[in-house]
Fold this sequence. Notes:
By secondary structure, the chain is mainly alpha-helical. Helices cover 79% and strands 0% of the residues.
Amino acid sequence: MSLATDFLDWLHTVPQPTLVGATGAMVLLETTLGIGVFAPGEAGLLIASTTATTLPRFLVLWLVVTVCVMIGDSIGYTIGRRFGPRLGETRLIQRYGRRAWDRATDVLRRRGAWAVFFGRFIPGLRSLTPPAAGTAGLSFGKFLPATALGAACWSGLHIGLGVLLGQASRSYFFVLGGAVVVALAVTALVRRRKRSAPAGEDESVAAA
């Protein structure tokens, strides 16, 4: 428990430009097709968001992450637009699963920009939605507003969750530590009473 609180304290000492830049880079890599498997952008964003304890810090992190998500999504869209249906035959898509790719492209053809927006909140389809939008022929004029709105909502939601987790973590560790101490004390008291119990009492209990 102390390691977790020590880590959160250390995180607050990291210069904000460094922390925000690293978080934006991880999110950009996660949203770019084929790299999302290796870049834990969502987890990194939640951890970094524990430091967004003031409004300026929140707004800066939110703006940078939103822009990075839009850039990553635009790269994925461009890849889908460039290769089209052939992208479904590549090892890149096979790693995600051809069934998931076919489902993503089908939803994009039927739902258009709405699928781009809601796809941002579905982990399994997040990296597939932008290239699927390009492959499905969705115009960039419709794609960009949808991905911008989705990125803004997604990043704001996760940063808010990170702030709440950071605030709750300390009280959680405190309560958990107290519960462990109480449990150990009760266990020790029960063992002590068993050892001091008269032999006749133990036998009567056993007979019963």
